[in-house]
């Protein structure tokens, strides 16, 4: 009686290591490392041939991470964003990733989910992967980034939001110039009572800068133009809160007043559009409007929403290139890169 043929093993074959290659070739691991680091001149033709034959026989593939670390670089960039659901963050990520890929780097993403307490965890987690540097779009006040020593000795670039106590290159929209163009356009179109609607300021530099620029622009117009600022928290306030605030704004302005809203970002724009619909108003008639950010749906809300388009792709690419220059050894004082926005005029801001 014959014995049954044993079934083939289903245990996955262990990936060969550099030690396996060395043993097969009858050389040291250091010799194999020299071969992979293109230092064949240090090897005799016979030894080089033995190493090459062992690599082919074992189908050995060196770890890209190990090779990079052997040269002191992981070729990884850590990107921390405040909120990945914000279209701005996604657009900047695309630009940064494009520039990094062109330079032979990969991007690792950490989403804070608008939680300030996770900044320290984000930096530590990415540092554990030996990233070469950080691109940071954080909330701006977390304890995790108190100073540059918390970045594990790696360079960083800040995007959109400054961080108190952290001296690093900064890339963002030129908020002051963009707001100046926005207010000038609204005033030119005959809007006299302006309301700036923003998410809670909470020390976020971009929100603070736009609010200050709004007040300064209106003040420069003298008594002919009046201003107000409204902070809204989408997570805490009910659906009717903003609609009621807009109705009260028009009532305060008085009968026949020309009232317009400037929205701080696309998140606020969407809420304003919902409130205007709830009130039964039409943009450009009962309420003028310009919003920061240019979401793809802005032209679809009748009669089209005027917006300030941010150069998000350019911001992401500029941030990545600034960081890569620092990784490459660039020294010197921190740099500030403020890029211009583009005012896109549609029906919501045109006077009648």
Provide a brief overview of the structure.
With 352 residues, this protein is an alpha/beta fold.
Q: How does the SSE layout of this entry go?
A:
Blueprint (H helix, E strand, L loop, with lengths): L17 H8 L3 H8 L8 H14 L5 H7 L5 E6 L5 H16 L3 E6 L7 H9 L5 E5 L18 E4 L9 E5 L1 H14 L4 E6 L6 H15 L6 E6 L7 H15 L5 E5 L2 H14 L8 E5 L13 E4 L2 H16 L8 E4 L2 E3 L8
Parallel strand pairs: 1-2, 1-3, 3-4, 4-5, 5-11, 6-7, 6-8, 8-9, 9-10
Antiparallel strand pairs: 10-12
What does this structure look like?
The chain starts with 17 loop residues before the first helix and ends in an 8-residue tail after the last strand. It is elongated. The chain has about 350 residues and is of the alpha/beta class. It is about 40% helix and about 15% strand. Helix 10 (about 265-280) links the parallel strand 8 (about 260-265) and strand 9. Helix 1 (about 20-25) crosses helix 2, helix 5 crosses helix 11 and helix 9 (about 240-255) packs across helix 10. The protein is built from 11 helices and 12 strands.
Structure characteristics:
alpha/beta; six-stranded parallel β-sheet; 12 strands
């Amino acid at each position: 009686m014959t014995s049954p043929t044993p079934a083939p093993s289903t245990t996955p074959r262990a990936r060969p290591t550099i030690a396996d290659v060395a043993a097969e070739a009858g050389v040291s691991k250091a010799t194999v490392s020299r071969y992979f680091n293109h230092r064949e001149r240090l090897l005799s033709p016979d030894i080089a041939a033995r190493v090459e034959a062992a690599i082919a026989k074992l189908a050995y593939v060196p770890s890209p991470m190990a090779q990079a670390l052997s040269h002191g670089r992981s070729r990884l960039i850590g990107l921390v964003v405040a909120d990945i659901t914000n279209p701005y963050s996604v657009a900047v990520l695309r630009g940064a990733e494009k520039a990094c890929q062109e330079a032979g780097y990969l991007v690792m993403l950490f989403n804070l989910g608008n939680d300030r307490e996770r900044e320290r965890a984000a930096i530590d987690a990415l540092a554990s992967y030996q990233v070469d540097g950080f691109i940071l779009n954080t909330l701006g006040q977390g304890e995790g980034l108190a100073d540059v020593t918390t970045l594990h000795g790696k360079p960083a670039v800040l995007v959109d939001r400054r961080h108190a106590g952290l001296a690093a290159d900064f890339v963002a929209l030129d908020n002051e110039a963009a707001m100046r163009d926005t207010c000038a356009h609204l005033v030119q179109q005959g809007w006299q009572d302006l309301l700036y609607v923003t998410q809670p300021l909470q020390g976020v530099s971009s929100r603070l800068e736009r609010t200050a620029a709004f007040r300064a622009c209106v003040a420069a117009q003298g008594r002919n133009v009046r201003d107000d600022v409204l902070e809204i928290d989408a997570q805490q306030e009910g659906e009717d809160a903003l609609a009621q605030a807009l109705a009260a704004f028009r009532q305060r302005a008085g009968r026949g007043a020309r009232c317009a809203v400037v929205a701080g970002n696309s998140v606020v724009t969407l809420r304003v559009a919902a409130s205007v619909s709830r009130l039964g108003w039409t943009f450009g008639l009962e309420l003028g409007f310009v919003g920061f950010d240019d979401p793809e749906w802005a032209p679809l809300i009748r009669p089209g929403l005027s917006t300030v388009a941010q150069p998000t792709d350019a911001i992401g690419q500029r941030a990545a290139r600034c960081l890569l220059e620092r990784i490459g050894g660039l020294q010197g004082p921190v740099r500030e890169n403020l890029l211009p926005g583009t005012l896109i005029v549609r029906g919501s801001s045109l006077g009648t």
